[in-house]
Design goal:
Length: about 280
């Protein structure tokens, strides 16, 4: 596939609306890794049997770390073609010490990898707990909890969703960046399902907009519909605001595309599609 230059990519506006189901995130449930660390009962299956694995959630590293990955562990048939592979970076002995050369037949061949915060999101166990030290089991602190005791499961705009797809999605050619490799995106919070209860500084914004975002309120500025008993439909004036935003941007995109004016940033002249 030919490489697409950044300035030749179409630019797509992505709007977050009040029923943006695709921007829904599954409940952040405390991992068994954290439960073991803090002496909490492990999460088990409905029949009481232990869970085989923790669910991994995309998260950011705080500092670079070195990890050792077992050679031929990416696919069950890699080892069958071992003669096609370069040697590993080194070996781990029975005590876990790394050596460049094999010292014992039981030493494990490994790749040495330095993973960094700037690499992007990594799938990791979810270690967070509630303020009282108990594990998170659902969006709220307990079943039917009041709104102020519930976390909002929706993204405030689609940028995080797109980042996770770019970082973790794999094409049929075995590579990533499935979205940014095709287009550039602008994110608009027309009437989002998720909002910032404590606000955000302008420099932290991931959407198109200027200035700080003031603290937002559920049912006023954003409209989550999970949990269902707290759902509030947007009032008519809010729905009209969405229509006005979309129409205004659509008109502007058409004007930019026709004008080609140097006074308009190329990134805006190249806006070619809209999605909600």
């Amino acid at each position: 596939m030919a490489t697409t230059k950044e300035n030749e990519k179409p630019r797509i506006a992505v709007f977050s609306g009040p029923t943006a189901t695709i921007q829904n995130s599954e409940p952040l449930v405390t991992s068994n890794k954290a439960r073991e660390k803090y002496g909490l009962p492990p999460r088990s299956h409905a029949d009481g049997s232990p869970m085989r694995f923790d669910v991994l959630r995309a998260q950011r590293l705080a500092v670079p770390i070195v990890v050792y990955v077992e050679q031929f562990s990416a696919h069950p048939l890699e080892r069958d073609a071992a003669e096609l592979y370069a040697p590993p970076d080194g070996y781990l002995d029975a005590s876990g010490a790394f050596h460049k050369e094999r010292r014992n037949a039981s030493d494990k061949p490994v790749y040495e990898i330095t993973i960094k915060p700037e690499d992007g999101l990594y799938p990791l166990p979810y270690m967070a707990r509630q303020a009282n030290g108990q594990a998170w089991e659902m969006d709220g602190t307990e079943k039917d909890a009041a709104g102020e005791l519930c976390r909002v499961p929706f993204f405030p705009d689609a940028s995080r969703l797109f980042e996770e797809i770019d970082r973790l999605g794999i094409s049929d050619e075995g590579v990533g960046c499935l979205l940014s490799g095709k287009a550039a995106f602008d994110f608009y919070r027309a009437l989002p399902s998720g909002g910032y209860a404590t606000g955000r500084h302008a420099g932290e914004r991931t959407d198109i907009g200027e200035g700080d975002i003031s603290p937002e309120s559920r049912g006023v500025d954003f409209f989550p519909y999970r949990p269902g008993y707290l759902r509030k439909e947007p009032p008519m004036p809010a729905l009209a605001r969405v229509t006005n935003v979309v129409n205004a941007l659509s008109r502007a995109a058409n004007i930019w595309a026709r004008s080609g004016s140097k006074a308009v940033p190329s990134s805006r002249r190249r806006l070619t599609g809209l999605t909600c």
